[in-house]
Amino acid sequence: MAKTDRPPGTGVMAALEGAVLIVWHFIATPFIGRSRLRWGTIGSESTDSLPGDDLVPSPKWTYTLGMGIDAPPERVWPWVAQIGQRRGGFYTYQMLENMVGCKITNTADILPEHQNPSPGEEVYLHPTAPAMRIEVVEPPNAFVLFGAPADVGSEESWGMSTWQFIVRPGPGGTSRLITRGRSDYSPGWKSRLAFGRFPIEVITFVMSRKMMLGIKQLAERS
After folding, report:
1. Among residues 122, 133, 142, 189, which one has the least CA distance to residue 160?
2. Of 39, 171, 180, 192, which is most buried with the most CB atoms under 10 A?
3. Architecture category of domain 12-221 in CATH
4. CB distance 117 to 145 below 8 Å
């Protein structure tokens, strides 16, 4: 079991940081435009075809975020493999997540019981929300979640999304961590609120950026 000092995103100061960033990004959205949808990517990363793209073939909006990590994919993968509520957490702003009832506990440990995810398993983001289903597992390079309420029998078919984690090898034993989301939805307000770009994109960006920084911290210290 690999250990670090403290789980990422825990504590009051982290929560204040997250809240400030969310407010700032809401205000700055008209000036930032679409550049936030490809934050941190280099070269063709934002447009490359990635595992899981076919699950939402015609998304109404999508984002791709990138980050370099000074560790090989084999050291990044364990932190990706255990992502989820009731699992390793999301390495992001734990207190903010729990204020909306997520019941998340971020970990700074590699959890052996969650190191062998399989297609078809469920990963929860919130204890009362429909789970996302693991669709692609290609250690140490690809982990893809797919969510559609109709898919788990909870709603009529009114939206779907993917959450894709790609770990690419880089030069000198480094990695590139890429996360992508693809969302489609129907015209109704309920579908737009749950799967549309606003307000979800702002919150997703702030939380995803922190998550990637958390994975980077854990992989580089492990």
Report:
1. 133
2. 180
3. 2-Layer Sandwich (3.30)
4. no
CA distance 48 to 40: 14
Residues 155, 157, 159, 162, Cα dihedral to 10°: 90
For the chain, what is the mean pLDDT? 92
Residue 166 φ/ψ, nearest 5 degrees? -125, 130
Q: pLDDT class for 89, splitting at 50, 70, 90?
A: very high
User: What residue segments make up the domains of the chain, in order of their start?
Assistant: 12-221
pLDDT tens digits, one per residue of 27-54: 999 999 889 999 999 999 999 999 999 9
Report phi then psi at 55, rounded to 5.
Answer: -70, -30
Identify the band that residue 151 occupies on the pLDDT scale cut at 50, 70 and 90: low
Chain position carrying tokens 């793209």: 53
138 vs 200, which has greater pLDDT?
138
Cα→Cα distances 168→16, 72, 80, Å: 32, 9, 13
Nearest Cα neighbor of 78 from 116, 128, 47, 40 is 116
Rounded to an integer, what distance in angstroms lies between the CA atom of residue 92 and that of residue 150? 28
Buried b (16+ CB within 10 A) or exposed e, 53-85: bebbeebbbbbbbbbebebbbebbbbbbbbbbb
